[in-house]
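> agent: user asked for a holo structure of the chain below bound to zinc ion. Plan: (1) validate sequence alphabet, (2) canonicalize SMILES, (3) run complex prediction with ligand conditioning, (4) return tokens. Step 1... ok. Step 2... ok. Step 3 dispatched.
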Amino acid sequence: MIVSIFSLILFGTKGESKSENNVAIFTYHLIVEDEDFDEEGLNKSLPITKLSDFENEMKFLKDNDYKVISMKEFQDHIYEKKNFPPKTVLITFDDGYYSNIQYAYPILKEYNFPATTFIIGKMTEHAKPDAKLRYISIEEMNDTKDIFTYGGHTYDLHYFDDGKSRLVSSSEEVVKDDLKKLSNIGEFKYFAYPYGMYSAKNEKILEDFGYKLGFLNNNELANLNSRPFEIPRISINSMITFEDFVKFLILLEKDK
Ligand SMILES: [Zn+2]
């Protein structure tokens, strides 16, 4: 992951003029307090961000006048082919951890940064109030819509079997059934593919269910010509340093 970000940085720093077409869409997952991150037993293979890193990253966006736009604004730019403002950024979260509300929401609110959280439908029923790794409930989704746009991340197909994402390996029948259950949780227009794994078969089904955009996790910048159901995103987790995050944003100020 780090290698691909650095190769992108090398590739992306050609030219001098500002670009108005590139957008950095960041993907976060779980956010934990710094002392919890250092605790024995925390599964470090999970995509985790320390709270202090998240705070520094959001502060950097604010202090350096990056334009954090909402998912609806992003959709309008893509569909209407109108140029993005310079230094445009989107903030997204995958899997629907409650820590997005507990830790990220107050910071996003302070800076007035909109964000999108892609929830795994079935997990909204597993929002145990006492668990550290608990998920966002439907009620909590409704209470935080001033900042969060909610999107889908399957109802219950977020598994990885034999090197394949279950969304990709499942039959159309199974995928449709899953999306039907997901639509009972909320009216979602945006979809993040589990593990970022896309298949054209799913694009047609998602469109039929009223989805407008589908998101990858391929560590590339998005731009005005990104296909609506193959929008690139950049994963941010404990393997990515603050310096990497900043280097990535500097790409937005360079021409492609
Ligand atoms: Zn996920």
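> agent: step 4 complete. Summary for user: The radius of gyration is 18 Å. The pocket of zinc ion is lined by residues 94-95, 153, 158, 194 (CB under 6 Å).
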